[in-house]
Design goal:
single chain, alpha/beta, 6-stranded mixed sheet, 11 helices, globular
């Protein structure tokens, strides 16, 4: 018996040693090559699976005549101190009116309802007007992708029970894949839309535990203290690293654009909007005095102010240099000042847009815009 125990103990120690050695090798490999970290591999595998599934579902052709607007991360709650959407509600409703009138298809790309913090009936009761407005797009001009905070809607029973009165028979998607057809004078490619939580530890691998902690600990903290409700980027460095991992996955595919949400940071052609503003200011300041525009002083002042505002909303941290314009992020619909951001795919262009509400009406601002097809030239 004693000999058996010694043998079993030796085998256990050997197994632990081998396992520890493998873990150390993988950790060192990840330190040398960020593409080989465990988190990156999880994300790669999850997004590869979504891409395969969507390719099997058939082609969803995106023509220049079609119009889509994509919003993500509303985090609608129950109108208490834990609710992130209260300030943005009126802005969002104004935006919906515009897109309904302009014949856009509405794509809601995950975490629209914060079902980690609240029960479905509480959210539906608190924002009935928003659901009724969205329902005006349904069924022909309304598409839904689930995120981690509204993953409950993956259940057909739960969808019909709660969303059925507004969207009878609605389906939810893990992702959506659009194809831009290649022609003689322009390249084509694919555009994959996902929420962006796929492969993450807290949002995917251990999502039930995360939901339990958010609903029973973090939500109570928000209600009691009033803290946390107005901070879309509670960990700027974590969100920046996740944007970088989504970019790494997308940059490994030819002729593919990835549009995601989840991080709450607007990203345009793989750079944050803040980075784009800073680059624009640098280009302006580097102009020879003779080449400066007549409104040089006003334009420089406006850019400096925009940079200050954007840096407060989306603090820069751990952002890496990204050379391929393959990754875009909608931002979110839960900024404390009532602004919302999203992405339009319309008229052959892709646009990063912001909506505000002032003087009793919604105000749409195009932050960035470019023809869609030429982007695929850079992704060969």
């Amino acid at each position: 018996k004693r000999q058996y125990l010694r043998g079993a103990t030796g085998a256990l120690l050997l197994s632990l040693g081998i396992g520890g050695g493998v873990a150390l090798v993988r950790a060192l490999q990840g330190a040398r090559d960020p593409h080989q970290t465990l988190r990156q591999r999880w994300i790669n595998q999850a997004l590869d699976q979504v891409l395969r599934q969507e390719r099997q579902h058939g082609i969803r052709l995106l023509t220049p005549q079609e119009r889509y607007v994509i919003f993500s991360d509303h985090h609608k709650g129950a109108r208490n101190e834990a609710d992130d959407f209260i300030a943005a509600e009126v802005t969002y409703l104004a935006a919906l009116d515009h897109y309904l009138d302009q014949n856009f298809t509405l794509i809601v790309m995950g975490d629209a309802e914060d079902l980690w913090e609240e029960r479905p009936e509480a959210v539906l009761s608190a924002y009935r007007r928003v659901f009724e407005r969205e329902a005006q797009f349904y069924p022909t001009r309304y598409l839904r992708i689930h995120g981690n905070h509204d993953a409950l809607w993956k259940s057909a029973y739960q969808r019909e029970k709660y969303l059925g009165p507004f969207f009878p028979g609605i389906e939810f998607h893990e992702g959506l894949l659009f194809t831009v057809k290649e022609t003689a004078d322009r390249p084509g490619g694919e555009i994959l839309l996902v929420h962006g939580h796929q492969g993450t530890l807290d949002g995917d691998k251990i999502a039930p535990l995360s939901q339990f902690l958010v609903r029973n600990v973090y939500r109570l903290f928000q209600i009691l203290t009033g803290q946390g409700r107005t901070t879309p980027a509670t960990d700027a460095c974590l969100r920046a690293r996740h944007d970088t991992m989504l970019y790494r996955w997308a940059s490994g595919h030819e002729k593919l654009l990835l549009i995601a949400g989840h991080t709450h940071r607007p990203v345009w052609s793989s750079r944050t909007h803040l980075e784009k503003l800073i680059a624009e200011l640098h280009r302006l300041l580097e102009l020879d005095p003779a080449a400066r525009p007549p409104d040089f002083v006003e334009k420089a002042a406006r850019l400096r102010e925009d940079i200050k505002i954007r840096a407060r909303k989306d603090p820069p941290c751990d952002d890496s240099v990204k050379t391929r314009p393959c990754y875009f992020n909608t931002g979110c619909c839960r900024y404390a000042d009532g602004d919302i951001t999203g992405i339009e795919l319309a008229d052959g262009d892709i646009r990063l847009i912001k909506w505000s509400f002032a003087q009793g009406e919604g105000q749409r601002t195009v932050l960035e815009s470019t023809p869609l097809s030429p982007l695929f030239f850079f992704l060969l």
